[in-house]
Design a protein that fits this description.
Blueprint: H1 15-20, H2 25-55, H3 61-87, H4 93-109, H5 117-127, H6 130-141, H7 143-151, H8 156-237, H9 243-261, H10 267-270, H11 274-289, E1 293-298, H12 306-327, E2 332-338, E3 342-349, H13 362-373, E4 376-383, E5 387-395
Parallel strand pairs: 1-2
Antiparallel strand pairs: 2-3, 3-5, 4-5
Helix pairs in contact: 2-3, 3-4, 5-6, 5-8, 6-8, 7-8, 8-9, 8-12, 8-13, 11-12, 12-13
Amino acid sequence: MSGDVPVDPARSVTVASARSDPARSDLSRSDLSRNFWWDVYLVVIAAAVAVVIFAAEGPGLGARLVATGAIAGIVVLHFAAGRRAIARDEARPGLLVAMLVLFAVAVTLVPNANWMLFSVNPLIFQMVPLRTAVFAVVAVNAVLPVSDLILRPDAFGPDLVIALIAGAAGIFLGTWIVRVVQQSQERHRLIGELESSRAEVARLSREAGVTAERARLAGEIHDTLAQGFTSIITLLQAPEPDLALAVRTARENLAEARSLVAALSPAELTSGSLPSAVRRQVARFSEESGVPAALRVTGEQRLLPTAIEVVLLRAAQEALTNVRRHARAREAAVLLAYTPMSVRLVVRDDGGGFVPGEADGYGLAGMRARVQQVRGDVTVRSDPETGTTVEVEVLA
């Protein structure tokens, strides 16, 4: 229905949505139950009015029969087409006009038939938009006073007062109930949108989690397995292969793979502290590359969250791997500095350097991503004459 929403105090406000959404089928069944009680109400009122018509004094038997037939016609039209239009939320002004004509006939012949307004007023608000319903209520309540002007002038005054009161009450209640229904529909719509938004947020969160986990695993593989295999290949391709060191590196790589599969901390951290794990990385770097390197630890050492220790260890691995691969350095140095507010890792070499930002590969990008996850910063300074310095600082 376009425009305003028809009102039925006993109607569900979500008939259409319940019909289109299988998950809300309970609402549809509830709507059918409420429509049943509205049908019972209409029949009871019509039967009571029929009794009042036959009990009325003055009108002849023929007039009373016609009036009763008109009331019965309203009920018949409702069951034949009206209740279907109401259930489908369709405006049927032509059908309503036919009902109101029958009502006017009944009231003109037997004034006591005006009691049918108890069901006609809400029926109007169910079948046409609000603005049309207001005019229809005014018209239907004016039937009795207008007929009084022609047929019963002495009853015009009292009937006019009754019509004014009944019309005002009908308009007020009908408008109020329509607004309540509209608000209820709006709430249902907003709830539906909220549920849809929550489902979308959950989906996006899952996708973001999957993406982040893939990036994390990619970084883990790059920083551990890929670097270890590179070291093994380098050792085996050397003029004088160091098989013992290659085997040891392979075993360490296997331990890393097992830790990665089990989602545990790096193998180095499970058997010691962060400084000892970094020291082993520095020693391995010197042994594999032949470049002298040393670790210096300053400040008061303390236990850090596992996530931060993993990030610092991986940063040291990545920085030393870059020195071995690209720097052509004569020496390197690593600093692990503990302060009350942060932990700082510095890897410096005296190699050929590079232009930061232009030569950043996956390793440095992965390092920055890891450090950002623990709210840290990465600073890279490089110069052909002085070499490269990679500094990682994490608040901890």
